[in-house]
Design a protein that fits this description.
single chain, mainly alpha, 10 helices, elongated
Length: about 375
């Protein structure tokens, strides 16, 4: 089991029966963040190349078709596949970029308004996801409904990140390079807040996930756009091909080594969270009733021990042997509530979530 899942609190407890043997998303490793940044840059360059070389309407239809095909493959898969998952991420990057650009180019919506709009959409998805599943952790993606929430969130983050990056680069006139640097600083600040100041991992993850989009897109635009608009002039087609080649190499490596795949055997062998365990009811003086092993039935009634052979009530002191009320310790001698030992192995819910040693390798083994 990954470090992300150790000591899980109520944020990570599944509220619905699992349908998949393991999570449908990869473990959060250094490879995850590298490919995520490359895919955001590749999606930006590919989208810009398509709308500049063919009819924009046809380009959007092609992007939408690729997005639908990738989603069907991902949702029909029964387990995590690096090729299918990252194909879905790349197509979300392309179509998410087009969705954000359409509002500005086709309908004339300012980037500030589109950024606010997608921020509200993202907030609504988060609220619905948490109200329905009681978790926002990507490591609980083991049911179809949670997977739909996850991919809706990913699409909204890509669209919002695209609009945010364009807003800072064009509306605020920071330029592509300055925007990329500022968003990189914000990304690093989230990493430090999680690593050194115990920022909740789930909150840190989604903030960083949103920030990767403007980081990758800003640097991709800086390299691709001509010198007249503050770029290096490499061209969107060239940038898209180079980034695609790099993504294929990294995803192929993960597909072979499976360094980012959750092991179903570890998931099955891991103990259930404390809130999900059902304690066997105990009665004073009697041994706890042990249920039969999984797959076996209770023994027939005629095989039960006779009443005189069952454990006696002697385990509990008789009423006359209990200390009198005056002999009990006074209540003011009891420790204060905040000084009593906790029944949980962690002090707070945030401490339960703080199980990672570093921001970029939450799930490194």
């Amino acid at each position: 089991m990954s470090r992300w899942d150790e000591g899980r609190s109520r944020w990570d407890e599944p509220a619905a029966p699992a349908r998949y043997a393991a999570s449908k998303v990869p473990l959060i490793t250094v490879y995850f963040w590298i490919i995520k940044l490359l895919s955001t840059a590749m999606g930006e360059a590919t989208s810009d190349y398509m709308v500049r070389t063919i009819d924009p309407v046809i380009a959007v239809l092609i992007g939408f078709a690729g997005f639908v095909v990738a989603m069907v493959l991902q949702l029909r898969a029964k387990a995590y596949s690096a090729w299918i998952y990252w194909l879905a991420v790349v197509m979300v990057a392309v179509f998410g970029t087009q969705a954000a650009d359409v509002l500005h180019i086709k309908f004339g919506v300012p980037y500030t308004a589109s950024t606010a709009f997608y921020a509200v959409v993202l907030a609504v998805i988060f609220i619905l996801w948490y109200r329905t599943e009681r978790t926002l952790s990507i490591h609980s993606i083991r049911t179809p409904r949670r997977e739909l929430f996850y991919w809706a969130t990913v699409l909204a983050t890509f669209a919002m990140g695209t609009a945010t990056g364009d807003m800072t680069a064009r509306t605020l006139n920071l330029g592509y390079l300055a925007s990329g640097i500022w968003f990189s600083i914000a990304f690093a600040a989230v990493a430090v807040a999680h690593w050194k100041f115990r920022l909740n991992p789930i909150l840190a993850f989604w903030i960083a996930y949103v920030l990767t989009r403007p980081v990758g897109a800003s640097f991709a635009d800086y390299v691709a756009f001509p010198h007249s608009v503050g770029g290096l002039g490499a061209g969107h087609g060239t940038v898209a091909l180079v980034l695609t080649f790099m993504i294929v190499i990294l995803v192929g490596y993960l597909a072979v080594t499976r360094k980012d795949a959750e092991d179903p055997r570890q998931v099955a062998a891991s103990p259930a969270p404390a809130r999900q365990r059902r304690a066997v009811p105990r009665q004073p003086g009697y041994l706890p009733v042990q249920p039969p092993p999984p797959g076996e039935a209770w023994p027939p009634r005629h095989e039960w021990p006779e009443r005189d052979q069952r454990p006696a009530r002697g385990a509990s002191p008789a009423r006359g042997q209990r200390p009198a009320r005056g002999q009990r310790p006074p209540r003011d001698a009891w420790p204060a509530r905040d000084q009593r030992p906790s029944r949980r192995p962690w002090e707070t819910e945030d401490a339960a979530e703080q199980t990672a040693e570093g921001f970029f390798a939450w799930d490194d083994q």
